[in-house]
Amino acid sequence: MSGGFTQVTMSNLNLSAGGPFPNVATAISVPNFSGGFVGAGAETKLTEHISLRGEYRWTDFGSGQLGLPTVNGINLNDFVSARASPTMQDGRVSINYRF
């Protein structure tokens, strides 16, 4: 079993649109997310020097408020609330050689 603290930092999300209307470009500010992880794994010996190992980890990065842009003088944060709650699942299998 394992557990601990984790953090992720992301760049702001840049959006742009074009077409028959005037081009629009804007950015959404994304906060840093931090939270915890838990995981488990197992290992079995296949031969004297080779083993097989499997691990699984689930990570919850918490949640945070996204900063929406101002478009044509209108602050979208006054009308819409946007949050992100990222999670991640990670699985790993490895074959190990020990001298």
Characterization of this structure:
The chain is mainly beta. It has a 4-stranded antiparallel β-sheet, with no helix packed on it. Strands 2-3 form a two-stranded antiparallel ribbon. A hairpin with a 4-residue loop joins β4 (33-45) and β5 (50-60). The protein has a domain at 37-99. The protein has strands spanning 2-8, 13-17, 24-28, 33-45, 50-60, 64-65, 70-71, 74-75, 83-84, 87-97.
Question: Quick summary of this structure?
Answer:
The chain contains no helices and 10 strands.
Distance between the termini: 26 Å
**Total beta strand runs:** 10
**Number of helical elements:** 0
Low-pLDDT segments: none
Question: Overall 3D geometry?
Answer: elongated
Strand order of the largest sheet: 1-4-5-10
Please describe the biggest sheet, giving its number of strands, its sense, and whether it closes into a barrel.
4 strands, antiparallel
What share of residues are in beta strands? Answer: over 45%
What kind of oligomer do you see? single chain
Calculate Rg over CA atoms.
Answer: 22 Å
Mean pLDDT: 89
Order of helices and strands: EEEEEEEEEE
Fraction in helix? under 10%
Structural class: mainly beta
Features:
single chain, 99 residues, mainly beta, four-stranded antiparallel beta sheet, two-stranded antiparallel sheet, 0% helix
